[in-house]
Amino acid sequence: MFADTKTTVVFGEALVDDFITEVVVGGAPFNVARHLAAFGAAPLTITRIGSDANGATVRAEFARFRMREDGLQVDAVAPTGRVIVERGEGTHRFIIAPDQAYDYIEAGAALAAMSRCTPATIYFGTLAQRANDSCYALTQLLAATPARRFLDLNVREGQVTQRCVFASLHHADIVKVNEDELGNLFSWYTHARPCPTDMADERLHAACAILIRVFGLTGLIVTLGERGAVYFGAERFRLHAGAGDVVDVVDTVGAGDAFSAVFLLGSALGWPLETILSRANEFAAAICGITGAVPADTAFYEPWMTRWLAD
Questions:
Q1: pTM greater than 0.70
Q2: Which InterPro entries match (predicted)?
């Protein structure tokens, strides 16, 4: 199915969310990579784990999803990425540990892995750019290929600087943000201050056009949760897709990663943009109906593959 398509390169953190009572594998890039692998896209996942028990847990996910490991690096010193999750009443507090293995992704090994494929798209975020080594590795990868760049912006307090966001936006072709992050971009890079939740506001459209022009983007995707998503193109083109139906929302963890994965999948397969957005929203909504960012049983993907990939 993907024999004639180029490779999606996914760069960034693979980590574990430590709920004290259980450990769950996560990290936005790794969630995206697992979804793509389950759909048969065989992404190149460039990340770094420690030589420890959590690293073995992450590696087991590589095996479970039959993922290629040529982009996986193992650090003999730094531990596998870990986020401590403290549950509260209706909320969670996330403590993101410093100096983790994904902070030390080596440029040379990453470039060697990418040289063995023909990249179509490089997916990246901002958390793995907080440290010099991984940030340098990413810039080297981006410089080595003309592949399209998909930035999944994730503004986490204390983990990303405005300087990093600025550089990432200049690297990107397509950027995905949520409404809060869109508000940040308006505040930082435009004189406009439209409400980032009112997608019908012409002032918002004009502010998005400024962002697209200033950073040379081809597309800006704004995810709207239960309201779906909006795509702003370089030609002031706007396309809205409603959210998929969810009977019972279990949690919204990983919904954005699911959206990104299907957007990348549909782009690789040449689906029309409207179809891509509709299916990305539909799959993201379905992920909200399960516990966690990825399904515990890979059979979850079979109906989607039957419907979408039969041809």
A1: yes
A2: Carboh/pur_kinase_PfkB_CS, PfkB_dom, Ribokinase-like
